Amino acid sequence: MSHGSPRYTAGIDLGSTTIKVVIYDGSRYVAHMTFASWNPAGTAASLMATAATEFGLTDPPELVATTGYGRRTVKNATLTPTEITCHARGASYLVPGCRFVIDIGGQDAKGIRLSADGHMEDFVMNDKCAAGTGRFLSTMGQALGVHVDHLAKHAEGQEPHRINAMCTVFAESEVISLINQGVERGAIIAGLHASIARRTASMVASLRPEPPIVFTGGVSQNVDIVQRLSAELGHPVIVPKDAVYAGAIGAALLAWEHRE
Ligand code: ADP
Question: The domain at 9-85+246-257 falls in which architecture?
Answer without folding.
Answer: 2-Layer Sandwich (3.30)
